Give the backbone structure.
Amino acid sequence: MSQNVLGIIMAGGAGSRLWPLTKDRAKPAVPIAGKFRLIDIPISNCINSSIRKIFVLTQFNSVSLNRHLSRTYFFAPFAEGFVQILAAQQTLEHTDWYQGTADSVRKNLKYFQNKNIDYHLILAGDHLYSMDYQNLLAYHIKKDADVTVGVLPVSKDQAPGFGILKLNNQDRIVDFIEKPKTDEAMAPYQISGAWMKSHGYESNTNHFLGSMGIYLFKKNILFDLLTESDHTDFGKGIIPHAIRTRKVFGYLFEGYWEDVGTIASYYHAMMDLCSPVPKFNFYLQQRPIYSRPRYLPGAKITGCHVCQSIISDGSILEECSVEHSMIGIRSRIRKGSQIRDSVLMGRDFYETEEDHEENRKNNIPDTVIGENCIIEKAIIDKNARIGNNVQILNQNRQNDIKEDNYVIRDGIVIIPKNGVLASGTIIG
């Protein structure tokens, strides 16, 4: 059934709310769970849902994202599947950048006109969730919908970051507002406690129905909506227009879903993955999350205390303590260091003894966590160099600071990719 569905993943946003993690990479290329990238989530959902024709639309800082996709997702020579990158480009018809999600699809419509495709599935490249899109498609067909939008209940505090909507008794969307800014704007969209209870949730009246940014279109409907209007964004323009002119239904999603688009949401999602029973399950055999095979050895842990943490492939830990932390690929933590409530993204390479000697000559630390460090509530990006006796302490920390070699956002210290903290540095 899903062979006639084309997946289109939006991966072109600048990701400013995740800066500095997006300083040198696109948001969907941000590492997660020690060895994966955000873009692996929607692509894996597609593959696990038997959707094997996938386009990824890229734009900002896309070099590492494009490299990851080209190295990871290739099908057998005689298979029909593909994951193809569509980067923003100048053409005779279009000479500017993508102006929004809908504009990016509009500018690539000629690539989506396969006669064997009946449905187009539009997805975001930066959400953490597991969904069987076959169930979404079955619902779409059952309702004879022109457009189906994935929806889920969100709290009043979360609602300003979503498009929120109203459903009628047939689950048809009858009203929609993108990211309301005031309580007055949100009030008409509040859902009742009775509705929450009838759908298996706690009887809480302080909730709204939010759009997940997942849209399933009949092929001709998508083409018509994009050609009959000049709206540049799905949430702000295309979906409200479609509600007035087409049959648009809401598909209620009942699983875990998280928009990891801010430093705080990213950090808390990674910390949850370290808990004994995380909300998102990477360990489902029937729905694996795919990523690039790196052929790394298992982690080497010598004389360490490790509690409630994930230690990724190729890591080397020496007589250190790691508590409630995410340790990425090829990480090295030297003797006496303590890592608590932190995300270490690891390294893209191992250093040799010759590299270490060169580092000493240039008076810079190795790409490791040095000896006798204390790292608390921090995100250490790829290839960072942390000297000996560095302290990042979670004490009276301000929410937002930008320094030359570190940033604090939402109360979380971030050491940028390739960043350097000299021995003896104290933050906190």
Q: What stands out?
A: The two ends are 55 Å apart (CA to CA). The domain at 2-273 is CATH 3.90.550.10 (Spore Coat Polysaccharide Biosynthesis Protein SpsA; Chain A). DSSP finds ten helices and 32 strands in the chain.
